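ok so I'm stuck.
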Amino acid sequence: MIVATPSNLPRAVHGIYALIRQGHQVVASSEQPGALAAALREAGLGPACVEVVPHASGAQPLPIVEPQRRLRVALLGHGTVGTGLYRRLAELPDQFTVTAIAVRDVRKAERNGAPARLLHNECRLALSRPHDVVVELIGGTLPAASLIESSLRARKHVVTANKAVIAGRGPYLEVLAREAGVQLLYSASVGGAMPALETLRRHAGSVVAFSGVLNATSNFVLDRMAAGLALNEAVAQAQAAGYAEADPRLDLDGTDAAQKLVILARAAFGCVPQRLVQEGIEHVRDARGVRLVASCTAGAGEVRPVALAAGHPLASTAGAENRLLIQLRDGSTLSLSATGAGRWPTAEAVLADLYDVAGRAGLRPQTSGLGHAVGA
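replied:
not stuck anymore, here's the structure
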């Protein structure tokens, strides 16, 4: 699909990403191709996702979703991703209004650019402010699960990046959402900017199996170990680079990848695998060519370190890049790749879910070609 993009870069990125989530191969024509390519890379969308060109004949105006009214957002969490999301929403004041932000440390949030008037040090105080949708970015299972549940019961839409909650309680929470007539969206829980869930849902019923590299921390650590570092040294570097948490056990033991596998299996097959084998990278000694691979069929799944041949499609993933291979019944294989972690790719995936909430809430689609962008 060849599209002419608006001069407003945030609008252009959001519109292109929406098309990628729908399964389109995108060529983006821009009067500022270098700047657009850089903005797309920051959002986790490199040349493998979209080609940017200075001019393309026959380009159609990029579809842009414009709300009929602002969507009011209560943001729970202002860490790495929450900070990025707030900045993205602030670029779109005619589409989104953040009415409250729940944080652990009010002063730190202020230093990171959050207005003091929006900040609350308790989630219940933030949720007492008027809002249409709750964005949960505090992580962990508790109190996140109860906050999501209570928000759905209060008939509020919920967008979350919380893979632990969705892997463990996703079906139950989706029932609550349907009963309340609201949306529960969680694209950012798997793959960052990589549209893994959207693609598997679109091909559900035709998927035979999938396999992928879904954990950025293990990629980084394995690369450093292959270069000669010990595991603890590689982990320390991953923490310094922002890829690993202070407690990296869920990444190293395969739990993070297994949770993502469960979420993807539900999208592909409508159920979790009856048998799931999980092995992390803690006992890897020779890390050359090794990747932590999550693979799944309708009946079985596994997460384990695999020594891949140099030409294998998953072998070249590095750092925060995620890649997913989807085998279909007709014998074809779909390949997806994008940045799977980090502030901006995850924030972009959350923002895309917010656009979906806006669209499903009766907001009208419009189109915007070159020269039609609304200033941020």
